[in-house]
Amino acid sequence: MIIRKTFTELTENHINPMCAMLKCYHTDKKERLASYNDSKKNITFPNGSRILFRYCDHEKDADRFQGTEVDVLFIDEATHQNEEKYKKLSACVRGVNDFPKRIYISCNPGGEGHQWVKRLFIDRKFQDNENPDDYMFIQSLVTDNKALMESNPDYLRQLEALPPKLRKAWLEGDWNIFEGMFFEDFRVSPDLALCDKAGITPEEALAQRRFTHVIEPFEIPRGWNIMRSYDFGYNKPFSLGYWAVDYDGVLYRIMEMYGCTQTPDEGVKWSPDEQFRRIAEFEREHPWLKSRKIVDSVADPAIWDSSRGESIADTAARYGIYFTPGDHERIPGWMQVHYRLQFDKNGYARMYVFNNCKAFIRTMPLMMFSETHPEDLDTKLEDHCPDEVRYMCMSRPVSPIMHVDPKPIVSDPLNQFTDKQHRQGFR
């Protein structure tokens, strides 16, 4: 079975070329290697084997495959499918015959399925029910396609002329950044180009917390304030982040509680009572929190809605957990997140994330720009963690880092101004 996002793509990229290759419409029926049934969207071979052509665009399309059995599944442009649809499609690969069961996918970096493909095939970070031996990645760059290079040598120059992010993804096969990525300034590991420019290794950058946002946990100094940010969810995940604020106002996301099942963007369905009972218990027992006062907490203003009974904020208060309404302005909020992620000239950011904050690290790179609101992110994605991060950043706004060249000094015989410029940073 061959899967593509839309049937038009199936027709142009698979059905028409394969029908031509197999001579399905040859005037002499004896020359036909197979036959194509347009109503069933199948190619059938003389021995009874079939190739099924199916499209999968929305969740309801994936549900149509329940009960389908195939020996081989091929998903073209797999990053156009999210992980839930991929799992539903892969469940079709089964049967009692002895034919080897296989799944093939092909794709470019980017799209809503970017993260699960990267996790399985690039990063090789597997869950308990996943066998690493079942997954193999074979990278193929455009230069590996000898036939294409010979027939269309200009194609390489076309890729080289793409905007930088698309060029890195499509030409160089870079899975760390792609076109449409909302938080392209977020660095899970030290930025290699910036490290090279600064003359340090990635290991040195990580140890110095430079040119990266994800760092090793450390003991929080007693003088730093501790804060919370919260986004409610039931059927979808809830997200609670704990933050430490240093003496310079830098935010450190030190811990989180994310109410998600093993399926991305699927909530654990805990009631507000259950959520705050567990949160209160966690804060009483965790060594980083049990003897510390949480000085401030921000949350989605929607939790103060009491039109259907006790509000979620009131439920939290019954457990001794108090919030203030977060600023819900989306575009200024996202800009505050971007300002926090900026590096100064020495490679230091104003927001860091402990590497134990798995939800933040997993979901932030998934965010993409909205197709209808170009300055906003796509709210159909798993945006619960980014939302509460936005509330936190808006509660402690900062100005953007402005990198400016120093003004030339015409006359400075005592080197007063020159020395001052060397000492100045950009914070």
In the sheet with the most strands, the strands line up as 7-13-10-9-8-11-12
What is the arithmetic mean of pLDDT?
A: 90
Please provide the count of β strands.
13
Radius of gyration: 26 Å
Order of helices and strands: EHEEEHEHEHHHHHHEEEEHEHEHEHHH
Q: What is the structural class?
A: alpha/beta
- In whole angstroms, how far apart are the ends? 56 Å
The percent of residues in helical segments reads 25-40%
CATH topology of the largest domain: Nucleotidyltransferase, domain 5
- In the CATH scheme, the class of the largest domain would be Alpha Beta
Number of helices: 15
Q: Largest beta sheet, briefly?
A: 7 strands, mixed
Looking at how many chains there are and whether they match, the oligomeric state comes to single chain
Topology (SSEs and partners):
Blueprint: E1 2-4, H1 7-21, E2 35-37, E3 42-44, E4 50-55, H2 59-63, E5 72-76, H3 83-90, E6 102-106, H4 114-122, H5 146-151, H6 154-160, H7 164-171, H8 192-198, H9 202-208, E7 214-215, E8 225-231, E9 239-245, E10 251-258, H10 272-285, E11 294-299, H11 312-318, E12 324-325, H12 330-341, E13 351-354, H13 358-363, H14 384-395, H15 416-423
Parallel strand pairs: 1-4, 1-5, 5-6, 7-13, 8-11, 10-13, 11-12
Antiparallel strand pairs: 2-3, 3-4, 8-9, 9-10
